[in-house]
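in:
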């Protein structure tokens, strides 16, 4: 939503059916630290792909890792 993401990171917000989700995917074969937009409060949901959780406004994603969180 207007926020620049590092190269190799796919991030989007999905809204619908009463949910508001943040989805972030590391498409690279190296670990990446992804800054989150200021003020965004996201909590990881119970999803098999989740490999990280926000810490100090950023996600540390392993190679080909993913994060899906409720906003």
């Amino acid at each position: 939503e207007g926020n620049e993401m590092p190269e190799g990171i796919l991030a989007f917000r999905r809204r619908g059916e009463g949910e508001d989700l943040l989805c972030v995917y590391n498409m690279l074969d190296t670990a990446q630290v992804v800054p989150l937009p200021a003020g965004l409060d996201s909590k990881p949901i119970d999803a098999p792909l989740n490999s990280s959780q926000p810490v100090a406004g950023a996600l540390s994603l392993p190679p080909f890792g993913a994060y899906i969180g409720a906003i």
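note: The two ends are 14 Å apart (CA to CA).
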